[in-house]
What we know:
Layout: H1 2-12, H2 23-35, E1 41-45, H3 47-51, H4 55-64, E2 69-72, H5 75-83, E3 90-92, H6 101-106, E4 109-113, H7 116-125, E5 130-135, H8 150-159, E6 164-170, H9 181-200, E7 207-209, H10 213-218, E8 226-229, E9 250-260, E10 265-266, E11 272-273, E12 278-283, E13 300-303, E14 306-311, E15 319-324, E16 333-337, H11 347-354, H12 358-363
Parallel strand pairs: 1-2, 1-8, 2-3, 3-4, 4-5, 5-6, 6-7
Antiparallel strand pairs: 9-12, 9-16, 10-11, 12-15, 13-14, 13-16, 14-15
Helix pairs in contact: 2-4, 7-8
Bound molecules: pyridoxal-5'-phosphate.
GO molecular function: alanine racemase activity
Enzyme class: isomerase
Cofactor: pyridoxal 5'-phosphate
Amino acid sequence: MTALLAAERTTLSLLPAPLLRTLPAAVAENVRRVRVGTDARIMAVVKADGYGHGAVAVARAAVGAGAEWLGVTDVAEAVALREAGLTEPILSWLNPAGVDAVEAAAHGVDIAVGSVEELRRLVVDADSPLRVHLHLDTGMSREGCPLDDWPELLRVARQGRGRVEIVGVMGHLPCADEGDPRANEAAVLRMRQARDAVLRAGFGPLLVHLAATAGALTDPATHFDLVRIGAGIVGIDPSESIALTGASRFTASVVHSSSVPAGTPIGYGGTHLTTRPTGLAVIGVGYADGIPREVGEGASVEIGGARHPLVGRVSMDQIVVDTGDALFPRGTTATVFGPEAGAVPSVQEWARWAGTIPHTIVTRVGARVQRSIA
Ligand SMILES: *Cc1c(COP(=O)(O)O)cnc(C)c1O
């Protein structure tokens, strides 16, 4: 029986080791970096489970570092933050049809509204005053109400007084990651027009907000009253203008090591043949855990203080790395990515290897990877 138990343990240890974090310190550092560049208030955007880092943990750390607002894309995400004891103002946008106005108001959650139809629905549904931010289409044709529809939007808002309370105007920059102020001019102008229309219609005071991380870091004209920081909070600067601090470390362990001769095929399809006698380490993480299957040349992990390249295809549960002259015993920790640079690959490097953006690397870390806060 004992042997069987050991076998079961072996299977379990194929799962990646904990995704260890230096999260609160990194988040606090990133909030401070944003703070020094703006007079606006800071909203920590913790949608998609805090960009894969854990919404409650990221929210707590951001609030602890002085973020005044929290942002999500679903009332359920907001309620989870309330249940975790967070009392800061929360805004939810991109809400699905049928958003529960009563629940939102009961939990003190502000709702962003991007169409006349949505506002009409909320006016009907709300039973106590629901705080609403009118969401302008600033040039993306995603969520957001085109400026042409604002007269009607404001008419509905006036009729709905007492049921909906207009407290904010929001937009989103179409060239959010360009870091080029000229790219934002049209959106800034439209924001001002929308704000002025809302004020003329007799609403106010208003919280006006347009910028996400890139705008907050590169273009003060986009800051208005509040900046919404998601990627930046977890250490990703889409504008690549300043160095932020990575908030997660993804580790896994060596599950198998071997020495192989030159000409040995590795993995599915034998797409890689060793060119010399070398050591291999199998690491227990694969695309089910968030390792992009699309990675090209250069992808590597850190083991024993050095980088070792991935060889062969990424499998669902494992990757193989070429460790050269070194052989690492089973159980050795490999770091997939982390904040320390040097031998440890960064999230940004993984994004380049996979031809994607860093956001997708952190938000796709799989469900079976244990999360722990360091
Ligand atoms: C996701 C999101 C943000 C945060 O963007 P980052 O670039 O991750 O900071 C801000 N505003 C809106 C409307 C969003 O959907």
